[in-house]
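Input set for joint prediction.
Command: fold jointly, output C-alpha cells.
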Amino acid sequence: MQELTHYINGEHVKGTSGRFADVYNPATGDVQAKVPLASAAELAHAVDIAAAAQPAWAAVNPQRRARVMMKFVDLLNRDMDKLAEALSREHGKTFPDAKGDVQRGLEVVEYCIGAPQMLKGEFTDSAGPGIDMYSMKQALGVTAGITPFNFPAMIPMWMFAPAIVCGNAFILKPSERDPSVPLMLAELMEEAGLPKGILQVVNGDKEAVDAILDHEVIQSIGFVGSTPIAEYIYGRGCSNGKRVQCFGGAKNHMIIMPDADMDQAADALIGAGYGAAGERCMAISVAVPVGDETADRLIEKLVPRIEKLKVGPYTSGDDVDYGPVVTAAAKQNILNLVQTGIDQGATLVVDGRDFSLQGYENGFFVGPHLFDNVTPDMDIYKKEIFGPVLSTVRAKSYEEAINLAIDHEYGNGTAIFTRDGDTARDFANRINIGMVGINVPIPVPLAYHTFGGWKKSVFGDLNQHGPDAFKFYTRTKTVTSRWPSGLKEGGEFNFKPMD
Ligand code: NAD
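C-alpha cells >
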C-alpha cells in the first residue's frame, strides 16, 4: 500500500505521529493509500522552516516572484493529464471535471502574475513641508490554508498562489481524503523556482488544524469547508489574533420564472444539480419553479434528462456525467437524508437509491434523485446534502420564491431563469447572496473577480482571489518621512508655499 508523505523543506517527509487515514479510490471502494496525520510537533517543525525561509522570499522583487507563477502555469499545463488522473482517482470526479479543477486554479495563478501591479503602494509627494507619505503592502509572514476534498487542486491554488506571490510562506493542510494532488502542486512550485520552505504541505486532521490555529507564528488562516468547521476555525483563529477568512457550506436556489426557456432551465439544472455528483459548493440543490404550471413543465423536462444521466468511474471516458461520491460515509449520509425526505412527506420523483454498477459494486456511487413538493421545514431543504439530489420547492409567486432564498441560512450562490429584465434586475439587487446568476446556473466568478458567499456561507470580510486576495495576504504600512533638503539653513523655507 502506498504511504503518502508530508512535503516539508522541499522534501517528501514520512509522518512520525504514527497516525494515518485511509485514502480511497471511490470508484472501487478500495483503500489505495494511507496519508499521515501530523502531530502538533510536525506542524511546528514546518512552521520553523517556513519562518526561516520567508524573509528572503519577501525580499525577492515582485516581478521575480511573479515569474515563478508564470513557470508554474507552464508546468500545470505540461502535467495537466497527470494531475487530473491523480485527482479523479482519489476524488472520483470525471476526467474533464478534474481538468476543470486544475484549470480554475491555474487561472488564479495567471491572475497572480500581475502581482507587481497589485503590490504597488501609494505615494503622496509633499504631504507637508519636506514631508512625503507612502504606503507599502508587505507580506504577513507565515500563512496557512485548510482545504476541503471537493476541489483538491483549485482551492489550494486559490490560497497559496496569492499568498506566495505577495511574499509569504504558506503551509497547506489539504483534505485527508484526496491529498496527492496538493503534494504534486508543491513539487511543481519548486520546479518552477520557488525556494524550499515557502510552500509546504502538512497532511492531517483536527490535530494539525488545531496546531495551526494555536501556533503564534502563523499570521493568517484561509479555510474552505463545511459551515460548522468554518465557524469553529474562524472563532478560534480570530481569538488567537490571526487574520482569518472561512468559506462554508451552501444551499443554492435556482428560481425558474414562468417565462423562462424551460429547455434551457432543465439543461442548466442537470449540469448544476448533478454534475460532480452534487459535490460542489456552487451546485444547485433547490429548484424553485414559480407557479404549479411552471413546476409541472419543469419536472416533465427534468425526468427524462435525469434518467439518461450516465454515472460511472472516470476511467470510462468522457461520456460519464458524474462519478462516485468521495467516501462510503458521504454516500450513507446522502441516502439517510433521502430517507428523511421521504419520511417527512416530499415526493421522490426519481429514485436513485438502488443504483448499482456492474464491476463497481463496492464503489461509492449514488444514483440521481429528484424530489418534488419539498417544503422549507424539511431537513432535505434545510441541510446541505452534497450529493446528486435536487429538491423542488414550488412557489406561488416571485415574491415567495425570492423570500425562500433570502430566508435560507446559507448564501453562497443563486440563480434566476427568466426572459424578463425587470425581474432579473430586481432579483440581483434584493437577494442577500454573494454570487448571482441570471440565466447562468453556476455563477462562479473568474479569477480576476472575487469569490465568496454571504450569511452562513462565509466568516470574514474579504473574498477569495481577485483583488481581495492581495488585501488578505498583505499588511499596509504607511510611512511619513521628512527630509530637510527643502529647508534653508535655520529652518526657513526657500520657497513660498501658495496661500
Ligand atoms: P470539511 O469541513 O469536512 O473539511 C474541510 C477541512 O477541514 C479539511 O481539511 C478537514 O481535514 C478539516 N476538518 C474537518 N473536520 C475538522 C474538525 N473537526 N476540526 C478541524 N478541522 C477539521 O469539508 P469537506 O467535506 O472536505 O468539504 C465539503 C464542504 O466544503 C461542503 O460543506 C462545501 O459546501 C464546502 N465548500 C465550500 C466552498 C466555498 O467556497 N464556500 C467551496 C468548496 C467546498
